[in-house]
Amino acid sequence: MSSGQLYDTIGATYTTTRRTEPRIAARIWAALGAARTVLNVGAGTGSYEPTDRDVTAVEPSALMRAQRPAGAAPCVAARAESLPFADRAFDAAMAVSTVHHWSDPIAGLREMRRVARRVVVFTHDSSAAGWHDRFWLTRDYLPETTDLFVGRPSLAEQARAIGARVEPVPIPWDCADGLFEAYWRRPEAYLDDRVRRAVSVWARVGPEAEQRAVRSLRADLASGRWAERNCDLVTLDAAELGLRLLVT
Known about the structure:
By secondary structure, the protein is an alpha/beta fold. The protein contains twelve helices and nine strands. The radius of gyration is 18 Å and the shape is globular.
């Protein structure tokens, strides 16, 4: 299933929990440098689009395009792997939490590099050793996530394809963007169906794995087992869970 098809299916309530997290946005916008014209690839509903620059958005899902707010940047129906723009048409191209959906990440990244002088990508390093065990949700409740990235290019391969450097992005404990790892210190949130529906991982692992994980987590929260296992998280303001910026 393509990213457009996936979000046409699961994206109806996306704007309920997926909002711009100011601290992550600051990192992305700083990485854009002095760029005045910006292409946002896989733009979704418009989170993280800077308001002080000339932005053009690309989004394949009609449902996601329909949820873009009034006054949002103009949005083109297209895929990352085939951007309908001339070489170096933009000062910068950005992509936020979308590369893992692309059918060919390397091709999409090279297209971004073709149409822009600078590329900034916010993504997850699922190829890092031990990434699965770093986050209690994947380690203890959702082992199926390891299968989602089999055969996908590593973050190092993606960075090499466009000559990018890699920067870690810690996730604040009160992250406003309800991405998959956002509630690492607020585990009760994962019991909320609205939270899960706005994260593609849950759809991709399937309903059986999802419901098993939810039942187990609910039981562990009620018994105190989750708190006992993860007591070290309570004092942390931010966590390193594999989120990364690629910057050319």
